[in-house]
Design a protein that fits this description.
Elements lengths: L2 H6 L4 H15 L1 H8 L5 H22 L9 H13 L1 H8 L5 H7 L3 H12 L6 H19 L12 H23 L5 H23 L1 H4 L6 H29 L2 H4 L2 H15 L6 H17 L1
Helix pairs in contact: 2-13, 2-15, 3-7, 3-13, 4-6, 4-11, 4-13, 5-10, 5-11, 6-10, 7-15, 8-9, 8-10, 9-16
């Protein structure tokens, strides 16, 4: 498919289905992390997510091994660390003191940081409307950082929210690195190579902790392991393939709409699970999403 075709393609029913499905899958990631934390430590949740994804991507890694540009392995490692490795641990740590719904909203900062990093390090241009969008997004994030301490109590700095913000900066770094250095590499091949580089340390950690042996004996062990499996297989492996397919079928603008739907799903699931959600949280989300819209 030509570049022009990708730009001009209009979404059909299948494209809308993929968009909604991706929103549900990625929006559910934060509640799945919350459930996994019932039996596992934050580090175990992150390591399990990476290890399961590595196993799932292994057939693609073997099949496309010769197509991987190994001369760029430091950049592939950077993509792996910032695209999955570091965030996979930051989100579970943050959700020990942060609701899944607020985490989902803060995740929407990724496009704004992608813009800023692109400007600072990759030669991007900052236009006036994008500058306003960035300011609005950061203002919304500040609201959430201050009003995310829990059950209706007043404002107060929640440092755990900063971990989610750092995770979105990692995602933004990965996106810009891929765009600048791996534009022509198939997304699945790229993901397989990146996971292969970060997978071994995660697996070694799990073996040292005896995580696999405690699954059958710890309370809710299989339930929580199932949550991580769904998180890894759906939220990481299958979702990345579906998103790439959506990009091929439509265009970047339509595909990026998923950023607006993910926090909605995260909020609905969080509230359904009994999480507290206030008007200040809603105000922070609105400010971030308006900022994302303007920055586009």
């Amino acid at each position: 498919m030509s570049k022009q075709a990708i730009t001009d393609s209009k979404p059909n029913l299948t494209a809308w289905f993929l968009l909604i499905l991706l929103s549900i899958v990625w929006g559910s990631s934060f509640i799945l992390i919350k459930k996994a934390l019932i039996a596992f430590s934050p580090l175990e949740v992150g390591a399990l997510r990476i290890s399961i994804s590595v196993v799932a991507f292994l057939p693609f890694f073997i099949k496309d091994f010769k197509q991987i540009p190994w001369k760029k392995w430091p950049l592939l490692l950077l993509v792996g660390l910032t695209g999955t490795g570091i965030p996979a641990f930051l989100y579970p740590i943050a959700e020990t003191q942060l609701s899944s719904s607020v985490t989902g909203i803060l995740n929407s900062l990724t496009p704004l940081f992608a813009l800023l990093i692109g400007i600072l390090f990759f030669g991007g241009r900052l236009e006036s409307n994008k500058f306003v969008g960035v300011l609005l997004g950061l203002f919304g994030a500040a609201i959430l950082v201050w009003f995310s301490n829990g059950e209706g109590e007043g404002g107060g700095l929640n440092g755990y929210a900063m971990l989610v913000i750092f995770a979105t900066i990692c995602y933004a770094t990965s996106v810009n690195t891929v765009k600048a250095n791996f534009q022509d590499l198939d997304a699945i091949t790229l993901s397989a190579a990146a996971f292969a580089l970060i997978g071994s340390p995660a697996l070694v950690y799990l073996l040292m902790q005896g995580t696999f042996t405690k699954i059958p004996v710890v309370e809710n062990g299989w339930y929580c392991f199932g949550a991580v499996c769904v998180l890894a297989l759906l939220g990481t492996v299958i979702a990345s393939i579906l998103f790439y397919k959506l990009l091929q079928m439509t265009n970047v603008v339509f595909s990026a709409t998923v950023a607006y739907l993910i926090p909605v799903v995260a909020i609905l699931l969080g509230v359904f699970d009994g999480e507290y959600f206030s008007m200040m949280h809603l105000a922070g989300m609105a400010s971030i999403l308006i900022g994302v819209y303007l920055s586009r």
